[in-house]
Design a protein that fits this description.
The chain is an alpha+beta fold and about 400 residues long. About 20% of the residues lie in helices and about 35% in strands. The chain has helices spanning about 15-25, 45-55, 75-80, 130-135, 160-165, 210-220, 230-240, 285-295, and strands at about 30, 35-40, 55-60, 65-70, 90-100, 105-115, 120-125, 140-145, 150-155, 180-185, 185-190, 200-205, 225-230, 300-305, 315-320, 320-335, 340-345, 355-365, 365-375. The strands form 4 sheets. It has a 6-stranded mixed sheet. The chain has a 6-stranded antiparallel beta barrel with strand order 14-17-16-15-18-19. Strands 5-6-7-4-8 form a 5-stranded antiparallel sheet, with helices on one face. β16 (about 320-335) and β17 (about 340-345) form a beta hairpin. α2 (about 45-55) crosses α7 (about 230-240). The longest helix is centred in the middle third of the chain and has 12 residues, at about 210-220.
């Protein structure tokens, strides 16, 4: 599509759209990064069950992707992100974050290293101006390749089996590793990554390879119950895994209108990512002062919620009277059979076990106010050894 005429089609469709549209019985769609993406194909509960008990396909094409190359690509990314990129070997990936000069989170994402001078950075929001400004003085090339790279998430306990049946031997692929495989007179990249906290893979390809690969995987996975899943089922799985979602659990610092809405890695439980020994990176001075001064105002915590009603968007109270924070993501977990939530709580209330959540539950066109007890719960809520088993088991 001509970039100058994008306004004629405000939402693009992905290379997988001919297949996803045909399977979307509910015709439920949602915008994501300028693309239309499926919310649910027919039954969210069954789609979530496929993620946890069989295998699932999720269209990842709208994920924002930046190709970063050049002699100083490693040095640039070491300066940009909080983790050590120098320690990231070719053929490996890492979850990472980057901040502004005040140490406030801009976004999180996955950094893939394809070669000594070749990286792919994926994230939820668009950051090209920030990346280009941050690259001043570095011998690097940065390109938005979102439309040039099609992507598909294959997640679930049977994911490795499906890939093997499709002709891709991923037995030796450890978590956060990637490799190239021949496909359709070319190659695709498969990484052992995902957003479900379970055994899973992400497949990266050229757009013209998308439909042949989709068809191959659907045929190969049919005996193990492979099904496409929408964003609603994936959101339940990522909450079970304790993963944060941009513009749900935090607001990127460059998008926040209200100054008190931005958060630091310490306030989001992401300070474990920071490599203090690697040298300077954007936001280091501010984060060091926050660490040494103990000035964090918020804490992001996992919660068990009484009852079976989702607490999404609800306020938290200390002793049922004093506002203490708010729930950012929540669901009834089909896997754990309990109501769980992620919440931002003002310090030091995060260490006090006297919290309640105010839930408004819709009861036949009227809302009923429920005050339910909540208790701290470790993240991730869902943990299974198959997530890291190498080679993966035959489930």
């Amino acid at each position: 599509m001509n970039e100058l005429l994008h306004f004629r089609t405000p939402l693009r469709t992905t290379p997988f759209h001919p297949r996803t549209a045909a399977l979307n019985r509910l015709n439920r769609w949602s915008p994501w990064a300028g693309y239309t993406t499926a919310l649910c194909y027919g039954d969210t509960a069954m789609e979530h069950s496929a993620i946890r008990n069989a295998a699932s396909l999720y269209d990842l094409c709208p994920m924002v992707k930046y190709r970063i190359t050049g002699p100083q690509a490693e040095a640039f990314l070491d300066r940009l992100t909080v983790r050590s990129v120098a320690r990231l070997a070719p053929g490996a990936a890492q979850y990472t974050i980057w901040c502004d000069d005040e140490g406030r989170l801009l976004d999180d994402g996955t950094l893939f290293r394809h070669g000594p001078q070749d990286f792919l950075l994926t994230c939820q929001e668009r950051h090209l101006p920030w990346l280009l400004d941050s690259a001043a003085g570095y011998d690097v090339a940065i390109a938005d390749v979102t439309a040039d790279v099609a992507a598909l998430a294959l997640q679930g306990p049977c994911a490795a089996w499906v890939l093997r049946e499709a002709g891709f031997d991923v037995a030796a692929l450890a978590p956060f590793r990637l490799a190239d495989f021949p496909f359709d007179e070319d190659r695709i990249t498969i990484s052992r990554t995902g957003f479900t906290g379970d055994l899973g893979y992400e497949l990266w390809m050229k757009p013209w390879q998308a439909l042949p690969l989709w068809d191959l995987l659907m045929r190969a996975g049919a005996p193990r119950g492979l099904r496409p899943v929408g964003s609603e089922a994936l959101d339940i799985a990522r909450i079970e895994a304790g993963f944060l979602l941009t513009n749900a659990d935090f607001v990127p610092a460059d998008q926040a209108v209200r100054e008190d809405r931005v958060r630091s890695p310490f306030e989001l439980g992401l300070d474990w990512l920071i490599d203090w020994e690697k040298g300077h990176f954007t936001g280091r001075r501010a984060l060091l002062a926050e660490r040494d001064g103990g000035t964090s105002n918020w804490a992001l915590v996992g919660l068990d919620v009484e009852g079976n009603i989702s607490a999404a968007g609800s306020l938290l109270y200390l002793d049922r009277r004093h506002e203490a924070g708010h729930v950012t993501s929540a669901c009834w977990s089909p896997t754990l059979k309990r109501s769980i939530a992620l919440a931002q709580i003002r310090r030091p209330f995060d260490r006090i076990d006297r919290l309640w959540v105010e839930i408004y539950a819709l009861r036949e066109l009227q809302y009923a106010k429920l005050m339910m007890r909540v208790r701290p719960a470790p993240r991730p809520f869902f943990v299974h050894p198959r997530r890291r088993a190498t080679p993966p088991g035959d489930w």
